[in-house]
Amino acid sequence: MHVGLEVLAAQDFRNLETFRIEPGPRFNLFEGRNGQGKTNLLEAVYLLSAFRSPRDAKQGELVRFGAERAVVYGEIVRREVKRTVEIQLAKEGKKVLLDGKVITRMPSSFSHMAAVLFGPDDLELTKAGPEVRRRFLDRATFAVWPEHLLELRAYHEALKHRNRLLRDAKVRGVALDPHVLDAFEGELARRGASVLMRRHLFLERFVVHFAEAFRQITDGELTATLTHKASGFDHADSHKASGSEAAGRDFGVAAMPSVALELAAALSRARASDAKLGWTRLGPHADELDLMIDGRPVRAFASQGQHRAFVLALKIAELHRIHEAHGVYPVFLLDDVSSELDERRNALLMETLQRGGGQVFVTTTDRRWIRVGDDAMRRWKVEAGVLSAE
After folding, report:
1. What does the DSSP 8-state code read for residue 65?
2. 108: pLDDT confidence band, cut at 50, 70 and 90?
3. CB atoms < 10 A from the CB of 368, how many?
4. pTM of the predicted model, to two decimals?
5. CATH fold group of domain 127-298
6. Top-level CATH class of 3-114+330-389?
7. Fewer CB near the terminus (10 Å): N or C of the chain?
8. Pairing relation of β-strands 27-31 and 377-383?
């Protein structure tokens, strides 16, 4: 099933001159030297999907210098139904119009368009701390189940209450009331079990797509694994996969009551040590994704090319997992991919994408890196913020 942009337009967005283009249903190439505005184009597409910048930029930074406001507009087709999205940006805030009507929050079930972005900043997934990987996991899970965001917020609210009790007791030098903690920890454990269940269900199929994507990108020369380590459990390896094989602790729907009890017990055992610290050490907020290539930690031993291949496989797996869940492919945004992979792996990536489906927007400084048939691609030049079709 098709989903994608039929019209993309913007006025006074970043450094881009006012433009209106009609992207093709498959590959759309934007070529130009660095600093010309190619990444800003992808940011505009992402903005139409998520109603926020992938760079977490302030509203005023999105408005062209000297302008009062910016507008990004898209006409989107999903399952033969056309929808319009318009985002008006100003220093004081933004206004989102879906089908001409102002909305205040993301529509449920991604009813207009989802997007997956791969760019240089995403290399932090394999290089930075665990909070970056948790954020990736939760955003990807949200793309499959929008209710995951509400569950995650409820968990963090319960976590905040327990941390406040611990912190206040530490500051005041008083003993914690176990009955009060029982009540707070019970709620925290129930919410935590719900978060773990969604993460588990997402990863159950995601790891299969990931292993296959990594195999294709590396031409089978390397084996990658991804292990979800759930904080607070004796058997921490909660979901480990290589190829189609998955094993470990069950955090599925049927196991939720026992998972909640196990997490509550772990929180109870950790009270004394948590009280000394003034915060909660265990729970989904401390989960980790262990990333390995041929049995060695990616963060410590991978080459730059292997880091890039690993992250790109994560993104392609996210693409396929969303398609599997909703029956439509997200829009795939590839920023400056020619500088992120060597020539051979870049060619393997293009082959992988051609075997898949969905709309792709890709930027490059040299089109020779993008080996896709002419009949499947539309091209634009980007120079000093000006788009010109070829």
Report:
1. T
2. low
3. 10
4. 0.88
5. Glutathione S-transferase Yfyf (Class Pi); Chain A, domain 2 (1.20.1050)
6. alpha beta
7. C
8. parallel
